[in-house]
Amino acid sequence: MEQLSAPAGIRYAGIGDEAGPSLAEQITALARLGWNAIELRTVDGVAIADLDNRAFERLADDVAAAGLDVVCVDSRIANWARPVTGPFEVDTAELAALAPRCARLGTRYIRVMSYPNDGLDDAEWGRRVLRRLCSLADRARDLGLVLLHENCSGWAGARADRMLELLAAAGPALRLMFDTGNGIPYGYDAHALLTQIVDHITHVQVKDAAGGPSDTVYTLAGEGEARVPDCLRTLLQHGYTGTWSIEPHLTLRPHEGSTDASGHGDAFVAYGRHLERLVREKVIAPEAVR
Question: Is residue 144 within 8 Å of residue 118, measured between CB atoms?
Fold first, then answer.
């Protein structure tokens, strides 16, 4: 099947465990796509920070042998399962565990969120989030890392003003990750959000969906209601260069307890091929493709 080039300055990648739980399945799917970049979240259902040393070294060796660059590690720091009232030590321990592993994998980027609430009023929730994420960003800076806040669950997940406040408070060791499809399950207009934060985006995840928070259905990119082509065009128009990483969610949805994508490498590859065609046909003019 024809492999289509990305726009200038853009590389395609994928969150590996969406293709299958084993690293072999993840590597195979990316090889079939002809892509040389991977975003790591879990291997055999185990988060990167929780792998034992032998398993992690095997992962690092296999990724390098496959010629893959690791563009980001998706952590659980401040995510949908860790409310702001929970023990902060869990997040600082995960960051400390990931620091040498990110160095070994050759990436500075760690995906984080901004803590769901747990019965606090908005003001107190915000104060605690800012305090925690500023502390984490300070630690990340000292470790040579950059935290990427995703527009997902948490205090700043759906609001540009809070994201910008978070960036101003935390400093350069915290930047933004933008997921094109998260507005559907979380009930906001992701493209409208993007226009307010586009100059601060360091990494992009691509998914699409239809419906709403109570009836979300994930679709191929461009076939849902998340305005994926508009989002990608907006990024290019504002000079974004970096990674577009697919997160299909067609078979694997960790936040819903769906965690086994065994045998779904074909769907992952088809999703990637569809995105390549979508970009060529609806995001940029054919003559602009390098």
Answer: no
Question: Which residue in 272, 264, 198 sits closest to 235, CA to CA?
Answer: 198
**pTM of the prediction?**
0.94
d(C-alpha 54, C-alpha 74), whole Å: 20
10-273 adopts what CATH topology? TIM Barrel (3.20.20)
202/165 Cα distance (integer angstroms): 17
Contact partners, residue 175, CB within 8 Å, separation at least 6: 146, 147, 148, 149, 167, 200, 201, 202, 203
Q: List the helix and strand counts (H, then E) for the chain.
A: 9, 12
DSSP 163-203: HHHHHHHH-TTEEEEEETTTHHHHTS-HHHHHHHHGGGEEE
* Tens place of pLDDT per residue across the chain (290 aa): 455 678 999 999 999 999 999 999 999 999 999 999 999 999 999 999 999 999 999 999 999 999 999 999 999 999 999 999 999 999 999 999 999 999 999 999 999 999 999 999 999 999 999 999 999 999 999 999 999 999 998 999 999 999 999 999 999 999 999 999 999 999 999 999 999 999 999 999 999 999 999 999 999 999 999 999 999 999 999 999 999 999 998 865 555 554 555 567 899 999 999 999 999 999 986 544 44
* Residues ≥6 apart with Cβ < 8 Å to 18: 246, 247, 248, 249, 250, 251, 252, 261, 264, 268
Domain borders along the chain are 10-273
d(CA 37, CA 16): 10
CA–CA distances in Å: residue 149 to residues 52, 153, 173, 212, 221: 26, 10, 11, 22, 22
Contact 194/177 with Cβ under 8 angstroms? no
SS3 sequence, 85-110?
CCCHHHHHHHHHHHHHHHHHHCCCEE
